[in-house]
Design brief:
single chain, 68 residues, mainly alpha, rod-shaped
Length: 68
């Protein structure tokens, strides 16, 4: 019985190859989009942290340099 199901697969491998290549393209695209989104979120968070930081008074900077 199983040989009847596998017989059409052996005759024409192109539909399977097409589905596999489409799956590969979709997978690579999703990985690329997730990497791009992760980098974008990291850069936005870094810029937000830089903009949100309060300036250090000059007097405290001089005291920190003496301690170091």
């Amino acid at each position: 019985m199983s040989s009847l199901f596998l017989a059409p697969v052996r005759e024409n491998p192109w539909p399977g190859i097409a589905v596999a290549s489409l799956n590969l393209i979709v997978g690579v695209s999703l990985v690329g989009v997730s990497l791009l989104l992760g980098i974008t979120i990291s850069v936005v968070a870094w810029v937000h942290a830089l903009a949100d930081r309060a300036p250090t008074p000059v007097r405290n900077r001089a005291a920190r340099r003496r301690l170091a």
